[in-house]
Amino acid sequence: MRLGIFGGTFNPIHYGHLRSAEEVREAQHLDRVLFVPSATPPHKGRTDLAPAEQRFAMVRRAVAGIPDFRASRIEIDRPGRSYSVDTLAALRRRHRDARLVFIIGLDAFREIATWKEPARLFGLCDVVVTSRPPWADIDLAAAIPVVAREDFRYNRARNELTHASGHRVIFQRISDLAISATGVRRLRRSGRSIRFLVPAAVERYIGRENLYRPRKADR
Question: What percent of the chain is modeled with pLDDT above 90?
């Protein structure tokens, strides 16, 4: 089985996330994609982060009825900060016969040197780096942390890296849907519509739970 792992805050999940996952699923021949909301993101210090249980509830509603997509509680149920390397190691133990494919956006990949044990992460899974609008080329080799570069062979023609473990780092261009969770929250705070930016079930949940409501200073 080829198992995609798509992590993030999903604050909230939107159609950009879902379309990215779908295009990677198709291109990489994934049997399933797990959407993994983080409980305590190590790089996020925002005050507008919805509680983990509510973000998981939105993810679960967004993927309901989609056969190849699942919502995972693995980081929410694990105490402490939500480090991707710990999640991947746990999934590696849980799915010993699966090929794990970690889906990560370009912005996050450029910061991967600041993550916990990035060199170990590349030995656990394939990594698919997805584009962000506006689309531009990226030198994958230059973005690899210095401590891990000697473990890779670079195929410049395919803009692809092969790790000593046999896992690969692949750059994939996806549809340039200029939707962001920040933009969705901004619209909510200003009292404007978020319809067609998030799934209808997520929109209803946000309204019912009164998430991302206007701050007093915004009124």
Answer: 69
**How far is Cα 155 from Cα 202, in angstroms, rounded to an integer?**
41
Which amino acid belongs to residue 174?
Answer: I
CB 35 within 8 A of CB 5: no
Whichever domain contains 143, its CATH number is 3.40.50.620
Can you list the pairs that 180-184 forms with residues at least 24 positions away whose Cβ atoms lie under 8 Å? Answer: 180/14, 180/16, 181/9, 181/10, 181/11, 181/12, 181/13, 181/14, 184/12, 184/14, 184/212
Per-residue pLDDT of 91-140, as tens digits, reads 999 999 999 999 999 888 888 889 999 989 999 999 999 987 655 666 77
Asked whether residue 57 is domain-assigned, the answer is yes
